[in-house]
Design brief:
The complex is a heterodimer. The mean pLDDT of chain A is 94. Chain A is globular, with a radius of gyration of 21 Å. In chain A, 40% of the residues lie in helices and 19% in strands. Chain A is built from 17 helices and eleven strands. Chain B is globular, with a radius of gyration of 21 Å. The N and C termini of chain B lie far apart (49 Å). The chains are: A alpha/beta, B alpha+beta. At the A-B interface, helix 2, helix 3 and helix 17 of A face helix 7 and strand 13 of B.
Chain lengths: 362, 342
Amino acid sequence: MKYIDEYRDPELARRYVDVIASLVTQPWQIMEVCGGQTHAIVRFGIDQLLPDEVTLLHGPGCPVCVTPLELIDRALAIAVRPEVTFCSFGDMLRVPGSRDDLLSAKARGADVRIVYSPLDALTIAADNPDRQVVFFAVGFETTAPANAMAVHLARERALDNFSLLVSHVLVPPALEAILASPDRVVDGFLAAGHVCVIMGLAAYLPIAAEHRVPIVATGFEPTDILQGIAMCVRQLEQGRAEVENQYARAIRSDGNPHAVEMIREVFEVVPRKWRGIGEIPASGLVLRSAYRAHDAERRFDVGGIVTEEHAECISGLVLQGIKKPADCPAFGRACTPERPLGATMVSSEGACAAYHRYRGLA
Amino acid sequence: MDCPVPLRHDHVQLAHGGGGRLMQELIEGVFLPAFGEPTTRHDSAVLATASGRIAMTTDGYVVRPRFFAGGDIGSLAVFGTVNDLAMAGATPRWLSAAFVLEEGLAIAELRRICASMAEAAERCGVTIVTGDTKVVDRGKGDGVFIVTTGIGELPPNLPIVAPAEVRPEDAVLISGDVGRHGMAVMSAREGLGFEASLESDCGPLHEVVAALLEAGLPIHCLRDLTRGGLASALNEIARDGGVDVVVDEAAVGVCDAVRGACEILGLDPFYVACEGRMVAFVPAAQAEEALAVLRAHRSDAACIGRVRARHGDRPGRVSVRGALGAERSLDLLSGEQLPRIC
């Protein structure tokens, strides 16, 4: 299939592996930021093809994983209200809150629907003026433009019964937090290609310069990832710390200005808590005051929500690349995709879930 | 079917399930014209079998939407049950059909579904010999639910065809490409508007099974791929047969329309439903011959893997050798696949 097969070509993949092997002279730890990349690496066994010197660390870029537990509890509390039609992308539905998940709430009678775009939720709001339609706006910079557009249109069309429950996070501040950690283990980053498609590369320039770390904006197919690793290893071996673009077929250095403008119009940047990591300054988005009438957190008072993460879970360390899934005593035993204890097991893109699915316990 | 008896109502009423005149009207105006007059109208159909052993299976059909590219709930309710009989090596003979109708269903739609069932039954050489109708209040059903029970006759001296017969080194054959039904239904249900044509593979497998058996090939196990797709079928066989199965990813056919839709939605085609495909486990020595039989029915039939002995007492597992050479586990999913955020 065009645009797929050429990027999964075994011969091309082998050539990149050879290039990496010819470049590397010492151990390097490279973090792929995005959960989609983690999924591809584990699924295709890319980490097993690499020379021993190169270790891949799995980053925090799974939006489902890093959505705080209290926000999931808040989503559940809103979803079960009789006047609410709660819309979400599919993979949030199985994520457990403190006691429950959205699929179970649906089974008990809550009006919970899977949609494929926030604009679908907007259509539901237009068609059902007597329902309060809430869209669970989860994601990185990639999903923010469409969510912003939905709110923008809701205001323009006076769809007062539409609101967003916002859990948007931003990638560059998370990289800063990982680099600032005293336990820093990351030598180089593969940045999430689709985030850069929207935002461009500028935000990464000061990070690369200040922390002396190469950052290669990378795609999601096996040969994309291998080429990104090769570019990153070459920089490390040459002592460079630059921002490079492996995913040039999709990324322009200034991103998608229309999408960025829509995000800035609707959202503003705030500190945000990341599940497993904690609060990161300037790492989240909330609706600007002009759009706050569409903020589900303000619209629905569900009271104070207090949550507690499982003591045994090491997902915070996994998200920062400090530990691997198998280092956790609960992995595959107390913690499984059916009964996840923490962030990295809840979504198929989380590192623990990917290891569990594709590698099993062996 | 061209000139059905006119009914007093255009839509199903509760009384159509009530046992009175309206129910007689429904039977005589819709079901009998489609399925034919039984030899005797009685509480049971009485069937004569030549063989000593019969196979029996039952399945409920609740698909939404009821009509989709490549099929509908009627043809599905026949082919699905016929295929389950065929997987035991049986020749499908008779079906029952129980309808749970929702009050308000258009009679014209019911006629269309019955016509599709009749056509499917004729194609499979089965007779719908008995049935039942119930009507539930509006809002308490989803239009039409159909339950079909099937009986088939087993050829004399047919060896057992079941997971327990699977042996290490058996070849795993597949009768065609995967994922069409699930993606066609999802595309229609969710209004995804894919430009590429996505048709369900909904269809019967009894002919290809009969051809395998007539060729005298020692078939160890057959399994049709339904919900949960290829991955779930192989996992069931690995578990029940106490063996490991290794699949070569590149050998499994996935058409571009299914592949593209799965890529967009973040789904794995190995877990997507089929309704007209099966896997066959045969000894390696007969794999080529069996594959030739499958290919006479569909040119994209393929040999996709091998059976291995499992280690020790642990349950049988399925793994996939990917395009880049690494082997990964292909486990059962905890629930249905859900489309991803990004």
